[in-house]
Amino acid sequence: MFDVKKVEMEWGGQTLTLETGRIARQADGAVLATLGETVVLCAVTAAKSVREGQDFFPLTVHYQEKFSAAGRIPGGFFKREGRATEKETLTSRLIDRPCRPLFPEGFYNEINVICQVLSYDGENEPDILAMVAASAALTISGVPFMGPIGAARVGFKDGEYQLNPTLASIDEDGELDLVVAATPGAVMMVESEAKELTEDQMLGAVMFAHDACKDVANLIIDLAEQAAKAPWELEPLENKDDVKAKLKDHIGDDLAAAYKLTDKQARQDAINAAREKARELFEGEDDPSEYLGALKLVKKLESEIVRGSILKDGTRIDGRKVDEVRPIEAMVGLLPRTHGSSLFTRGETQAIVTTTLGTKDAEQMIDGLEGLSYSNFMLHYNFPPYSVGEVGRFGFTSRRETGHGKLAFRALRPVLPTLEEFPYTIRVLSDITESNGSSSMATVCGGSLAMMDAGVPLARPVSGIAMGLILEGEDFAVLSDILGDEDHLGDMDFKVAGTEKGITSLQMDIKVAGITQEIMKSALEQASGGRAHILGEMSKALSSVRTEMSEHAPRIETLQINKEKIRDVIGTGGKVIREIVAETGAKVDIDDEGLIKVSSSDKSQIEAALKWIEGIVEEAEVGKIYDGKVVNLVDFGAFVNFMGGKDGLVHVSEIKNERVEKVSDELSEGQEVKVKVLEIDQRGKVRLSMRVVDQETGEELEDTRPPRESKPRGPRRDGGGGRGRGRDGGGGRGRGRNNDGPKDEGGDIPLPSSITED
């Protein structure tokens, strides 16, 4: 019934299997990819015709994680998968970015790529497997896909590269999380987070990943040889050289002059005027396709002008040298009520970045295949349409915004302090107010400054730069700090972020399949110099982390206690911890390891709560003096609460040196007193004294009372003194039926039963 085709190989210590023909047979291409016990299904469908007037390639990639894959039921009210999570959005972009450039020019049929995680074993990450499955499904579908591509994740630990490590191992002690997609001949995409690795280490990781990608691509070719559908027949592109020459004669000089204008708005106005001039030239054409085709040729003409100028004489659009960074202006403390803020401007790119500090309950909850987890660092990036002078949709978080925010997140996370060093939840918010090239790297620079302004103890400041590439045959030029137009008309978008010590993040997208190791090495070295320059400009605004946080930021103090004491601090049903919060006004959080975080904007509230907690967990010491509060009066003395959560008895004989007839004459409930611990018995009962402590100063007084003489016990009367309820001797602990209570050995002062012998 099923014509199943299957290929497999050993890959990174696991068996990688690609299968087609059993599932989703009505799709143009469907592949079930398995690595270990992680299984991903990818199905590709393509429209057989193009909508009239369409002049772009509508490729849509959807990646979805089924909770059932990990044996879980989704949380929340609606128990089904909903809108795409951040991870799903980012993985969709990982698949889209290397595949999109591998479709031929002029192919405008809509293509839908859907990847679904069906099984997850907790070790083999489904994002890499989804990239492989998508590449295989496209390759066998028959659509004009100039792949296949392979994909791999690379880690770095103890000087060794690791193929496809688990994310848990990377988070624990790994130094690198790098994802690469590549054809057998060229690297197409790089996405990474690193702990300040050198340029050579990063380049080595990319090359290591490329070798692994080649093996996967060859496996996909093996599958395609068995199962690929007949390739689509494409109409050859019409030769438009004569139209192009006509356009060049008509507006070539106008475009060349426009691209010499350094101001973005003036340049855009001049380019739009040249395009309008081209429209007028072709408006009379009877065939609308001629008109649309001519407009596309205008863009090609623009590309040739810009690229030719850079390769021939090194002249860029705004007149800079290839390795020159635009003017930078940075400032901090821009917004008075935020916990930290910065304004970072580089040329015509600008970002307002703020840092907000919060407590544990502000952490981001993440519900995914791995289970429920929490993150104490968030970075959100917004790109409003006014930043590029356009009218557009506002308020909706696009995939691009999610991706740019994650890039900045990866760049900054490696330098963050540990929770033990800085027990705050940190949110960085970047609002792009102007954009003409690399707003994500402006977010990195502004985010670093905003956190330093907020007092976050970063290991080192981080800067970022976007590099570009113009490649024609063997001639190439690497561009530092690219403009938006250079990004659109160039062959590479290469973003590098890092500290003075090393790289923290690297992202690369290639539009041509010819970049070499030499070009990548050159780009990394040139980016290193650019990053250093930007760090120097940033230091003019703020060179080190502020030692004092904003007065509007919450203060958090931590206290590590023995895990056995956690129940004492929480109390039955949370009674004790609620009382601490209610009485002091501070917020108290405690984890399973006994780490307590006390937070408040009022330092005195924090101190009061910490003192209370310390009193609960501290062991009382015999001979030590404590502050206490009378909580209960009895005939034979008073019970005093001290150390926050402990009670002890001040016997009537220990209230004053002279005889006390009635306890209530000397003490009242709620009265603050100072007591000394006299004794702690085996059951934890505490005997206290007030008379040997100066109640004003808290200093210990000399005990002037003469010691009592001990009298020998007489024989016990029949029926008295036992625990039983003898008919003539009374019951309980008393010495006789008519006793009012226990007596001390030498007189008529009653002693509490808790501190006398039976």
TrEMBL record:
Cofactors needed by this protein, per the record, are: Mg(2+)
List membrane-spanning regions: none
Domain S1 motif, residue spans: 623-691
Biased-composition ranges, Basic and acidic residues, are 703-730, 737-746
What is the top-level taxon of the source organism?
Bacteria
Localization per record = Cytoplasm
Give me the residues that bind Mg(2+), please: 487, 493
The enzyme's E.C. designation = 2.7.7.8
Endpoints of the signal sequence: none
- Residues of the region (Disordered) are 694-758
Catalyzes what? RNA(n+1) + phosphate = RNA(n) + a ribonucleoside 5'-diphosphate
Q: Which family does it belong to?
A: Belongs to the polyribonucleotide nucleotidyltransferase family.
Name it: Polyribonucleotide nucleotidyltransferase
- The species is Parasphingorhabdus litoris
